[in-house]
Design a protein that fits this description.
Layout (H helix, E strand, L loop, with lengths): L3 E2 L7 E2 L6 E2 L4 E2 L3 E4 L5 E4 L1 H4 L18 H32 L4 H14 L2 H8 L11 H25 L6 H31 L5 E6 L3 H9 L7 E8 L16 E3 L4 H7 L4 E4 L8 H11 L3 E4 L11 E6 L2 E6 L7 H35 L5 E7 L5 E7 L10 H4 L20 H8 L7 H7 L3 E3 L6 H4 L15 E3 L1 H4 L7 H14 L2 H17 L5
Helix pairs in contact: 2-3, 2-6, 3-5, 4-5, 5-6, 10-12, 10-13
Length: 533
């Protein structure tokens, strides 16, 4: 148990009825009984009892507990940003200078102005919060900030050149903008992958405590099992001391009963932050708790109580004494829909032309190795429930549909989906085509026709739709896609519940940025064959 200074007397402590299980040993530590005023008995695990923790009104360590290693990591990222800009300046000058036959003086002038702008770049990156991991959780958020920084930095370059009395070459400026975008995007992507690797190996993680033990808190704990998010869960705080939580119910992690000593509990576990599950807090408790947590030098994060809603749709505004979240509707119509359709048509047409040689080779291989047509046509359900014929390269034997019934007993998927890791109906060439997703290239014609989109939910079979819940029918609000959130998240490796969640997330939160993110993730998913079946 933890002892808390009582308001009545500095020397009197109240007992907390809490037992803490040490997950490192998977056993309950031997307890030490301490008799305090009034004869009350409190129990404290010896390992935590020996730790020095801040008192209730004692300010804890500086936010984020920055170690020398973390400072050096941040400094390394700043240096990488500056060096990347230097590379962009150098490449641009070499390319443009060589093409335009610049003199040595012209090259020196442009590089001199470029050198003057170098101190500006770290400031721009910092202004866009690009050295704070909490603002860079998603790749698309970071890419958007990269575009902003490079654009503003290029404007600053032109202004500094103007102040210095030099008219920078317009082609050089435009070329730098494009080269810098490419270089910084690549650099930031590599840094991101490096940090993900560090987190997966147990480094660069923030130890946190979850306040709450209800369904939302447990769901949050499950999400934190992904180390790429940058967190390591070290304990829970049960908000109702009258209903103690068995540590076995929360993965054997320490559990504090009641919120009175949350700061001491967090510091004893060497946590740097807490995450509050709002649905577990009573009205009036949160303000006092937040004040104590922040005074204790802890990072504080609060859930919204919502799931599968993108932050871009949420705006926090005051409603009297209450900060409330206004939820923007998904905008699937207007200019965004027109832009998506133009993008689909243009990119699909170009992709069909580029992929023509691959399609020809695949068609010849199919024709030589198995009897039957090259293309496979199958009825799928499109937007608003309209049926259409989806086109694929045939990867199975001709009577595959007739043999489906006899294989249903070996179905490895849940829900209405069918999956069989070693499906005997797939031909030898078909396995290769499926592994590389070449069999789906004819669907580009479905996109050109308007039956499908490049990005969207997987086109469903009529027999699958017949087994859907009413909620899942919402996915028919949009065109099905060749690739989508389900496909890039593992495709056939994910279960039906995840399939449903991802499809509804896409329908509810669709935006052009989400489409761009899915398209970028499709390339590595296809190249690695992840989840292909």
């Amino acid at each position: 148990m933890f002892r808390r200074p009582c308001a009545r007397n500095d020397r009197i402590y109240e007992a907390l009825d809490v037992a803490i299980t040490d997950p490192r040993n998977d056993v309950t530590e031997p307890s030490a009984a301490v008799v305090v005023d009034g004869g009350a008995v409190e129990i404290a695990p010896p390992d935590l009892q020996q730790m020095s923790v801040p008192g209730r009104h004692e300010r804890g360590p500086v936010l984020s507990h920055l170690s020398l290693k973390m400072v050096l990591l941040k400094a390394g990222v700043v240096l990488a940003d500056v060096l990347t800009i230097v590379v962009a300046y150098t490449v641009t000058t070499i390319v443009v200078g060589s093409g335009a036959a610049w003199s040595t003086g012209q090259i020196d002038d442009h590089l001199r102005i470029a050198a003057l702008t170098l101190p500006v770049w770290p400031v721009l990156f910092a202004r866009q919060q690009m050295y704070a991991s909490r603002f860079l959780t998603r790749l698309m958020d970071e890419l958007r900030r990269v575009v902003h920084v490079v654009f503003v930095g290029t404007v600053a370059l032109v202004l500094i050149g103007w102040v210095a009395g030099m008219d920078l070459d317009h082609i050089w400026v435009l070329c730098f903008l494009l080269v810098a975008l490419a270089c910084v995007t690549l650099e930031r992507f590599l840094i991101r992958r490096w940090f993900v690797h560090r987190r997966r190996t147990g480094r660069s993680l923030r130890d946190v405590v979850i306040i709450g033990t209800n369904a939302e808190a447990l769901d949050l704990a499950e999400a934190l099992q992904n180390p790429a998010l940058g967190y390591r869960l070290v304990g829970f705080v049960a908000t109702d001391p009258a209903e103690p939580t068995d540590p076995a119910d929360v993965g054997g992690l320490p559990v504090l009963a009641g919120t009175a000593d949350t700061v001491s509990f967090a510091h004893a576990l060497e946590a740097q932050g807490v995450i509050l599950a709002t649905t577990s807090l009573e009205l009036g408790l949160s303000n006092r708790l937040l004040r104590e947590l922040l005074d204790g030098g802890l990072h504080v994060e609060i859930t919204s109580g919502l799931r599968d809603v993108t932050p871009e749709r949420m705006t926090v505004r005051p409603l009297g004494r209450h900060p409330v979240v206004y939820l923007e509707p998904a905008r699937r119509f207007g200019w965004r829909a027109v832009a998506k359709r133009i993008f689909d048509t243009v990119l699909s047409s170009v992709a069909l032309i580029v992929a023509a040689p691959v399609l020809i080779v695949a068609a010849i291989a199919i024709k030589i190795t198995s009897p039957g047509p090259v293309l496979f046509r199958q009825v799928r359900v499109g937007r608003d429930g309209e049926p259409f014929f989806v086109l694929k390269l045939r990867t199975m034997v001709v009577d595959a549909e007739d043999r489906l019934a006899e294989l249903m007993a070996q179905n490895e998927a849940d829900g209405p989906l069918f999956k069989m890791s070693d499906d005997p109906r797939i031909t030898r060439v078909g396995r290769i085509l499926r592994k590389l997703s070449i069999d789906e290239l004819p669907q580009l014609w479905n996109v050109v026709r308007g039956d499908m989109s490049l990005i969207g939910p997987r086109p469903a079979l009529p027999r699958e739709v017949a087994q859907w819940s009413d909620e899942l029918h919402e996915r028919l609000r949009v065109r099905p896609g060749i690739t989508g959130m389900w496909q890039v998240s593992g495709r056939s490796d994910t279960g039906f519940e995840e399939y449903q969640r991802l499809d509804l997330f896409y329908v509810d939160n669709w935006s052009i940025l989400i489409d761009m993110g899915i398209l970028l993730r499709t390339v590595p998913a296809v190249l690695t064959g992840r989840g292909a079946s």
